Each structure stands twice: as C-alpha cells, then as structure tokens.
Amino acid sequence: MENYINYEKNMKMLSQAVKYCEENFLHDEIIQELKLDNDLKKQLCIIELKKLNNQHEADILTENLINKPGPVRETVSYKILDLIPFYQDFFQTKNITDIFVKAISDINPSVSRNVIEIIKYIYDVDYLYQNILKEIKITLENINTEEKNRSYVINKKNFKLYWNLEALISIYDKIPADDELSELLKLTSNSNDYTIREKTAKTASLLSAKNPKFKEITDILADDINIYVRRYVN
Asked: Is the pLDDT of residue 3 over 80?
C-alpha cells in the first residue's frame, strides 16, 4: 500500500513538472516564484532564470541557497555560479557573503563545490576570510569539548572542517598567511581524519612561501602515514 501511495505521489509530481515545463515564464514571474514555497516550480524557474536586473533580485536568489530543500539549494548554487561572472556587483553585500559562508559546508557536496567556486568572485576577501576562520574555530572547539565521544557528530564536524579548508585553498592567493591561520592548521594537522590532514597539508603548502610558520606544518606532515597527505608536502 505504501509503495502504491509513493507511486501515486511521484506520478502526480511528474505530471505537475511536465505542466510547469510547458509554461513560458516571464522574468518577473520567475523572481516572484523564488519568494514562494512551491519547490518543484521554483527549481524550474531557477533553471529558466537568465539574468538579474538589480540587487534585490540577487538577494532573492541567494536567500534560496540556505534553509531550503536540497534540490532547491543545489539548483540555486549552479545558477549563482552561472550568473555571478556577469553580475558580480550584485553579490557583494555582507549578508550574501554570510550566506555563502554557511553554504560552504552544506550537507550536499555539490552545493559546497559550487559555492567554493562562487566565493572567488567576492570583493571583500578579508570579511570572507575572517568568517571562514570563525567557522573553523567554532568547529574545532566543538570537536574538542562536549561532542568528543560521539562519532557521528565528529564526522559531521570533520565534514565542515574539510569544506572550510577547501574554501581557503580556493582563495589562498588572496588571503594573508597570518599566524592565526597557522595556529589553526597546527590543530587540524593532528586530526585523526586523513582528509583533514590532507587539506591542511595542501593549505600549508600553498601558504608556506608567504610565512615560514606554514613550513613547520608541512614538515610535520611530511612523514604522515597517508600517501594523500604526503603528496602535498614532499
């Protein structure tokens, strides 16, 4: 009975999607739909979005990047990545940067990958950088305190660390190789998760020419037991 109900639901959604695909949405209709909660129709409208006329429209699009169902967030991330080279000035508010920082560690890796490319277009790199550092510090504090013995929580925190380190790598040529980051990387270099050590090694390697303290981190990781970690420091 449950399978029958799911089948009926899926067929109804498919029928509705076909109906939406047959519609020709005007630009203003698309923007209006992005404010509403019909997720299926919203996804199709996002795909059909070809331009942004002003800051307000960029705000509406970006707000759908968080706190929405996964398919909507993923579609928005692809659309912003597609549009931002042409409408870069519309994506520079602090509120939009805050949303991008949250979306870096989205549970959907496709969203994270897209956002890591998107943040390369942010003008205020210092604001972006400081907020990524803040996320890393909060994550490390949580790992080291009340959630130490809960493996599923640790995995979630490592996931967040991984993508924030990847974000720093994507903008490494624009950020300062400061002592605050080197101290954080010393902590992540001791992670039990080799993917975190790998991203730490890559980050430190890229920044070592700017600050010798990062060379100390690569030296530590040069003898790491994992080949994927060592490849960035040898």
From this structure: no
- Which amino acid would we find at residue 13? M
CA–centroid distance for 39 within its chain:
21
Per the structure block, which two tokens stand in for 213?
A: 């303290």
Cβ burial, residue 122 (10 Å; 0-12/13-18/19+): buried
User: Using CA atoms, how far apart are residues 151 and 219, in angstroms rounded to an integer?
Assistant: 29
The pLDDT tens digits for 9-22 are 554 555 555 555 55
- CA 157/CA 195 separation, integer angstroms: 12
Distance CA 86, CA 90 (A): 9
pLDDT tier at 6 (50, 70, 90 boundaries)?
Answer: low
**Helix segments in the chain, DSSP class H:** 2-21, 27-33, 39-48, 55-63, 70-83, 94-104, 109-118, 125-144, 151-170, 179-188, 194-207, 212-221, 227-230
Tell me what pLDDT residue 144 has: 60
**What does the block give as tokens for 168?**
């720093």
Coil, strand, or helix at residue 106? coil
**CA 146 – CA 140 distance, rounded (Å):** 11
Q: Are 52 and 87 in contact (CB under 8 A)?
A: yes
